[in-house]
Specification:
The complex is a heterodimer of chains A (384) and B (381). Chain A is 41% helix and 14% strand. In chain A, the strands form 3 sheets. Chain A has a 7-stranded mixed β-sheet with strand order 2-8-7-6-5-3-4, with helices on both faces. The longest helix of chain A is centred in the C-terminal third of the chain and has 22 residues. Chain B is 39% helix and 22% strand. The chains are: A alpha/beta (384), B alpha/beta (381).
């Protein structure tokens, strides 16, 4: 049995999206910028996809800019604002558990003279609004906080942050919504979010496509220059097949939102309950089981190294990540697990299970039974 | 006039009666290194190997820089043995230099040439001065040294590119190296090859607990090593079952040292079967608990062949520097668990006692595992 429980790394593409992409590559291969009919047809597909993305987060179509994915969206948001605002202020606020595509841009901005405050998080991964209130000032040009953490599933208090930042004239609020889209309610209108990053391949769309929501009247400087596509904010011929697939994925996400989020939460709870009942001495990392995002479960199995358990599961067709897919190439412990104060032994034995549309309860039960067998087997050999 | 590469080899010339054996092996290794390049002619005369290539000279030089036994490589002009042609070639070479001091140095192994070496240098120097502007002579500290060698032809060159040194691979027997995928063991293998040993390799794979990527890492390391002059046979030992048995049957703090002793035994079996007469490890004294003298004493006792540890006195930073130079470093630092790190006891014994270990091993029918272990062999070049 193949059980893919690494949906926060990437997801299997929905067949509806694949069909649409193939159709676009085969038939609507025109360039949306071309003046002839073939170009016009392509442009219609582009507009329709843009509408679907906008619908998912409740914004205007014209507020969506397509990018190559979550990383580019985060880069464009942070650098785009910093470049425009640098004459008026140089203070940026973010958190210690952001994605590397945020943290590494901030590191570079610091080298260029910006001052960045990295908010601490508690053991559930949540930022402290009081700490934010103390940090923010009239010099603050940008606040960048993720909606859902990719490693432990913490849901940050985006609404409250938005209310707070709205009181400061310069402050632009950017949300990394890559892991939140389709899983928790995002409503940029109500939440007063200025910028929001999205990615196609985390919601059963294709890789290499994403979007940045840019609220009307928020000015931003492009990082990629060229023929002026995407209102001059992201030049380059549009990745139309990717955009079309992304559009379908957003549409399905919107339509199936309630049922899907509920289903993911049931799967997550089923896995956690199963593990708790069958395996002794385990540790839930991050938020309480009912508090976090519905699709992410991070659990430590003390005594068993993450990578060893991962490969033991792999042999049985079960695919998971150690801590996070983005940090497992580097040495040392994940910065997120470190920030929530996890002890080394727990951090080194953390496994992230992340659920998606295609997972079933049967798969979860199978995973529990394999985990039970493998963890007790491996514990005999390790760290004695 | 023609471009030609002169290959200098130092140590070999000292080998007396065996000299032709070393030279022939070096010739063979050079041919192997250049075998995929078209239009290359390799020739040997007294104390020199010559490589003629039509174009892509830079690429040929890059290949030659990885052949052990070569001390220097020079890009020379080859001209007929008469003084006029030597003048013309000298002037041509020196025209590329401006506002420099120079000196001409001549060697004349071919005594049939009518002028003596000092005389040639003087005459050529004078010709250069009167035909090339903005150069002057400085016999003590010249910017440019023009070398002229009078052999059956005349060879003229200015720069010598450093070769890698060492002895031709294949001239000093065969050794079996235990490769883990870390930084040290490929460097140890390389150092043995540098001294002329042919190597083959053993890797212990603990599927599924060590990943395919970890195995692939070792394959890629062998590929880098193989660029230094030989194909490498990699013996991939399927170690999981045996490893788990060791962990089942031995006290936790002893598992690391016993596992290493078992690895030595398996490697020695492979060595015997492949006509190899020594083992090679990447151990460096004191680097980790298993590399104290006490531990090495115990591991060593499991082998009857000589065990070479070329890194034993090197610091980690020196080893890393070498790994970068060789080209293995970037592969070695990929962070996948290997079989030595997946099951690590909390407190490995630092000063093991051989008698205690042998006592434990006596209660454990390990020979059966060693005899029946399955090994896949991949030839990598």
């Amino acid at each position: 049995m193949e059980v893919y429980l690494d949906n926060s790394a990437t997801t299997r593409v929905r067949s509806e999206a694949i069909e649409e992409m193939v159709r676009v590559m085969d038939i609507n291969y025109g360039n949306p910028s071309s003046i002839h009919l073939k170009g016009y047809e392509a442009e219609k597909i582009l507009n329709e996809a843009r509408h679907n993305v906008a619908e998912l987060i409740n914004c205007e179509d014209s507020e969506i800019v397509f990018t190559s994915g979550g990383t580019e969206s985060n880069n464009l948001a942070l650098r785009g604002i910093a470049e425009i605002m640098k004459k008026r202020g140089n203070h940026i606020i973010s958190s210690k558990i952001e994605h590397p595509s945020v943290l590494n841009v901030l590191k570079q901005l610091e080298e260029e003279g910006f001052v960045v405050t990295y908010l601490d998080v508690d053991e559930a991964g949540k930022i402290d609004l009081k700490e934010l209130k103390e940090a923010i000032s009239s010099k603050t040009i940008l606040i960048s906080i993720m909606s859902v953490n990719n490693e432990i599933g913490t849901i940050e208090p985006v609404e409250s942050i938005a209310v707070l930042t709205a009181q400061y004239e310069l402050a632009v609020f950017h949300v990394d919504g890559v892991q939140a889209a389709g899983k928790i309610e995002i409503n940029v209108k109500n939440d007063n979010i200025h910028l929001l990053s999205l990615s196609g391949h985390k919601i059963h769309g294709p890789k290499g496509i994403g979007a940045l929501y840019i609220k009307k009247k928020v000015r931003i400087k492009p990082i990629i220059l060229g023929g002026g596509q995407e209102r001059n904010l992201r030049s380059g011929t549009e990745n139309l097949p990717g955009i079309a697939g992304f559009g379908i994925a957003c549409k399905l996400s919107k339509e199936e939102f309630k049922g899907n989020a509920e289903r993911l939460r049931i799967l997550k709870k089923r896995l956690y309950d199963g593990i708790s009942a069958e395996i002794r001495d385990i540790h839930l990392n991050g938020p309480e089981i009912n508090d976090g995002a519905p699709q992410i479960l991070n659990v430590s199995f003390p005594g068993v190294k993450s990578e060893v358990l991962l490969h033991a599961l792999e042999e049985k067709g079960i695919y998971v990540s150690p801590g996070s897919a983005c940090s497992n190439r580097k040495n040392g412990v994940s910065h997120v697990l470190k920030s929530i104060g996890l002890k080394r032994e727990l951090a080194e034995s953390a496994i992230r299970f992340s659920f998606g549309y295609f997972n079933t309860e049967e798969e979860i039960d199978y995973t529990v039974s394999v985990l039970k067998e493998k963890v007790s087997f491996l514990r005999k050999y390790m760290r004695r | 006039m023609q471009d030609i590469l002169l290959i200098k080899y130092g140590e070999l010339a000292l080998k007396g009666d065996n000299r032709s054996f070393f030279e022939n092996r070096l010739m063979k290794n050079i041919k192997n290194a250049l075998n995929e390049i078209n239009d290359v002619k390799i020739e040997k005369t007294h104390g020199r190997i010559y490589v003629e290539c039509s174009d892509n000279t830079d690429y040929v030089i890059e290949k030659l820089k990885r052949v052990f036994g070569i001390v220097g490589i020079t890009l020379a002009k080859k001209v007929d043995l008469n003084i006029e042609d030597i003048y013309e070639a000298s002037i041509n070479i020196m025209k590329q230099y401006k506002d420099k001091s120079f000196k001409v140095e001549t060697r004349r192994p071919n005594k049939t040439f009518p002028y003596e070496s000092m005389e040639i240098s003087r005459k050529v120097g004078a010709e250069i001065l009167s035909n090339v502007d903005n150069l002057h002579v400085d016999v003590h500290n010249p910017d440019v040294l023009l070398n002229i060698e009078i052999r059956e032809m005349a060879y003229l060159y200015t720069d010598v590119i450093d070769g890698i040194g060492g002895m031709p691979v294949g001239t000093n027997g065969k050794a079996t190296v235990l490769l883990s995928g870390g930084i040290d063991s490929p460097v140890a293998a390389w150092m043995m090859m540098k001294r002329g040993a042919e190597v083959n390799a053993v890797y212990f794979h603990s599927h599924p607990y060590t990943s395919e990527r970890a195995k692939n890492k070792v394959i890629e390391l062998c590929r880098v090593l193989s660029q230094y002059g030989q194909k490498i046979d990699l013996n991939i030992v399927n170690f999981t079952e045996f490893q788990l048995a060791i962990y089942d049957k031995c006290p936790p703090k002893m598992t690391t040292i016993i596992m290493r002793r078992m690895m030595m035994r398996i490697a020695e079996n492979i060595a015997r079967k492949t006509s190899s007469m020594a083992l090679v490890t990447g151990e460096s004294l004191g680097q980790v608990a298993s590399q104290t003298i006490e531990s090495i004493y115990c591991t060593n006792a499991a082998a009857s062949m000589p065990v070479f540890r070329p890194l034993i006195g090197m610091d980690k930073s020196e080893i890393m520097g070498l790994a970068k130079k060789i080209g293995t470093y970037e592969i070695s630092i990929r962070p996948y668990e290997d079989c030595c790190t997946i099951f690590v006891p909390k407190h490995p014994v630092i000063k093991p006692v051989l008698e205690e270990i042998e006592e434990i091993e006596r209660n454990f029918n390990y020979q059966n595992y060693i005899d029946n272990i399955s090994i896949d062999v991949q030839s990598i070049k």
